[in-house]
Amino acid sequence: MAIKRFLTVAGLMTVLLISALVVIYSKYYSRLLFIKIQEQERALDQYEVEWGQLQLELTTLTEENRVELVARKNLKLRVPLREKIVYIKP
């Protein structure tokens, strides 16, 4: 009877120990995942900042006045006379 009781207690202690180790491992793993999520969120924030900067740069570069200035200065283009413009209807 004492041996049966001892084996029962030993079995329960083993199950308790394994359960505690599983809880520790799952907590550790969840912290690792949380750290990775935070890193990805920081990277996403950086990409959003860079995207905003690129949008601003695109807006600046495609501004009508800038295009005209670059065309005149670098390409030596000029606006044609009104009578030289040909309109094509689709």
From TrEMBL:
State where the protein is found.
Cell inner membrane; Cell membrane
Q: How does it sit in the membrane?
A: Single-pass type II membrane protein
Membrane spanning stretches: 6-26
Chief location bin? membrane
Question: In this entry, which stretches build a coiled coil?
Answer: 37-64
Which InterPro entries does the record cross-reference, listed alphabetically? Answer: Cell_div_FtsL
Pfam families listed in its UniProt record? FtsL
**Keywords of this protein's UniProt record, alphabetized?**
Cell cycle, Cell division, Cell inner membrane, Cell membrane, Coiled coil, Membrane, Transmembrane, Transmembrane helix
**How is this protein annotated for GO cellular component?**
cell division site; plasma membrane
The UniProt record lists the keyword Chloroplast: no
Q: Which GO terms describe its biological process?
A: FtsZ-dependent cytokinesis
Q: How does it assemble?
A: Part of a complex composed of FtsB, FtsL and FtsQ.
**Function according to Swiss-Prot or TrEMBL:** Essential cell division protein. May link together the upstream cell division proteins, which are predominantly cytoplasmic, with the downstream cell division proteins, which are predominantly periplasmic.
Q: Which family does it belong to?
A: Belongs to the FtsL family.
> Protein name, please?
Cell division protein FtsL
Organism of this sequence = Candidatus Methylobacter favarea
Lineage of the organism = Bacteria, Pseudomonadati, Pseudomonadota, Gammaproteobacteria, Methylococcales
